[in-house]
User: Fold this.
Amino acid sequence: MSQQDIRIGERLVGAGHRPYLIAEMSGNHNQSLDRALEIVDAAARAGADAIKLQTYTAQTMTLDCRQPGFVIEDPNSLWAGRQLYELYDEAHTPWDWHAPIMARAASHGLHCFSSPFDETAVDFLETLGVPAYKIASFEMTDLPLIARVARTGKPMIISTGMASVAEIDDAVRCAREAGATQIVLLKCTSTYPATPENTNILTIPHMRQTFGCPVGLSDHTMGCGVSVAAVALGAVLVEKHFTLRRADGGVDSAFSMEPEEFALLRAESERAWQAVGEVRYGGTQAEEKSRAFRRSLYVAEDMKAGEVFTPRNLRAVRPGFGLPPKFLASLMGQRIARDAERGTPCTWDLLVPSDGAKVPSPER
Assistant:
């Protein structure tokens, strides 16, 4: 376990391990426990490592009123015209569903944890023995909540949508001062859906270097391309909203992944992680046999000892067992040391000095 690895349950999360994939259920259960359990089953089949819930009630999130600010007025929002209280009441996961959802996840070997939105939610989740906590982007400036989660000693995943460097620093310092030793930061764009142009995943390696934490991606874009690119830049964890079918509707369905897409994310993110490797030049052991397909210098006609190399009898062809083609021009006019059949690789011991000329030095 490296200094930047964290452990969620039995699973190590870090640069040396396959990307950890979280299927965010959010409100996609559409107020049906049966559907919530079906989402867990589908996430497991699709290759998720964890299913994530959100733990709140409308009452703990906002006020039941229609004063300015309590109704979404942005005409471009998925939730334009909706009252916040009504929206949260529709989207929340009933607290008595958490235990059966977690039990179903455990039956598949999936981790199940949640984003608490106030301290009462943390107290409740502690009674269920969750293996980790997620701090949502909108709560990452709620330092009392961060401190409460940190005091549990569990791994913390902190999403950073909209956050400045100073705000992230405040959150990380607060968590560490309250006892957190395992923190993952998530690059996040807090639009729903997000566009690739607004995602700026080049921030991931900079965030890792700046805060000394492993970094992942909370991805609200469509498809898996942005997530795969993030893994190539060092993301150790990817979170995507997950639903059975976008056509079923729901508060988050429009930007959620379907099971077939999530399975593709699992395959392609692992390929990206495997491909990153290390800075390396020259052939790998796996490529060694392919050297035979390079061009090299070969005797192209039967030759007698003492004959002169010409463009007709010395050519650069495949396979690659002779001298490199860069020596072709310098060998023109030189003499062959012994008889050689057509198809003989040209090597240094096949040459003799001629008319005082020097044989080129072998490669070093």
